[in-house]
């Protein structure tokens, strides 16, 4: 009897697995379709980064969103992960690069000077066509490479290390900026940090969210900012949710702040409205 119920639970468990697997396959198929149709299911949002000294918004981070045809939203971490595991990330990133670069061109034409960061994965950097596609897209839209920053996490940089570093150096050579995202939660040793061809250090939001309440976070953030500067990097804090945290970061000489205290990620037209209001007040 107990063997039978055991088998049954194994059976159910397997069924659950199959279902999850099937769900992923369906989602992957829909994602593929959404990329090729480009029918508005996928779109980019942009979150402002405040330059602490000038009080200007000179940069944004582009963040992808997916709303399926049935109206449901898919968490970006979930579908980015799916895209990475299936190799679809190369196509997805190509779509993102195109969309963001043409948006930056549009802003340039309107006299809005914004640099934009694009999140990419290890596979993108390892993909031989990534560099040439990016350069081609920049030329096509007449966008200066220095207006684009590539954001990579520590994990992405470590995977395929030598090839990856070479690819990043090649990007730097044409003038594209490189940012190390989610700094402080990955495995980057200081020895490795010193070797990475990066321009910007982006402190993970886990140290920033409660910065105004946690002395430990303040120590970590202050020393990371100092370290970043001494290594020649610009330092950004993500996850700034309160004025107190913003002020602390200013005192600590952090270069840029990004987070809900300023604004959530917005579609381009809403960001333009937000910018107008911001400059009316500041
Ligand atoms: P990330 O690059 O580290 O992006 C920062 C995340 O923090 C974003 O989540 C952003 O919306 C969120 N965030 C910003 N300010 C605050 C704040 O004040 N408080 C809190 N709690 N969160 C804040 P999102 O948009 O859900 O993206 C999650 C991750 O998905 C990103 O982490 C990035 O790794 C990935 N991702 C997003 N867009 C893209 C993309 O276009 N391409 C790729 N390859 N990955 C992307
Ligand atoms: Mg990022
Ligand atoms: Mg991050
Ligand atoms: Mg992240």
From TrEMBL:
In terms of the whole protein, what range is present? 490 to 771 of 771
Specify the domain of life of the species encoding this protein: Bacteria
* Domain EAL, chain residue ranges per copy: 24-279
Q: What is the protein's name according to its record?
A: Diguanylate phosphodiesterase
């Amino acid at each position: 009897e107990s063997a039978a119920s055991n088998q049954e639970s194994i059976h159910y468990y397997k069924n659950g697995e199959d279902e999850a697997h099937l769900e992923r396959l369906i989602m992957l198929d829909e994602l593929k379709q959404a990329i090729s149709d480009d029918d508005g299911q996928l779109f980019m949002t942009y979150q402002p980064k405040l330059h602490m000294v000038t009080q200007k918004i000179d940069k944004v981070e582009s963040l992808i969103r997916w709303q399926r045809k049935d109206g449901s939203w898919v968490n970006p971490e979930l579908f980015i992960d799916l895209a990475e595991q299936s190799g679809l990330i190369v196509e997805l990133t190509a779509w993102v690069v195109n969309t963001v670069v043409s948006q930056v061109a549009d802003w340039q034409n309107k006299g809005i000077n914004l640099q934009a960061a694009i999140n990419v994965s290890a596979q993108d950097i390892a993909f031989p066509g990534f560099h040439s596609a990016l350069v081609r897209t920049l030329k096509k839209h007449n966008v200066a490479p220095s207006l684009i920053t590539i954001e990579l996490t520590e994990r992405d940089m470590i995977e395929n290390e030598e090839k990856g570093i070479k690819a990043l150096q090649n990007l730097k050579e044409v003038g594209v900026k490189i940012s190390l995202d989610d700094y402080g939660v990955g495995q980057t040793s200081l020895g490795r940090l010193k070797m990475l061809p990066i321009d910007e250090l982006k402190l993970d939001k886990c140290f920033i969210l409660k910065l105004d309440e946690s002395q430990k976070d303040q120590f970590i953030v202050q020393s990371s900012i100092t370290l970043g500067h001494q290594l020649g990097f610009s330092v950004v804090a993500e996850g700034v949710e309160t004025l107190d945290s913003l002020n602390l970061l200013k005192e600590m000489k952090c270069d840029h702040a990004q987070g809900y205290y300023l604004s959530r990620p917005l579609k381009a037209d809403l960001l333009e409205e937000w910018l107008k209001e911001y400059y009316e007040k500041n």
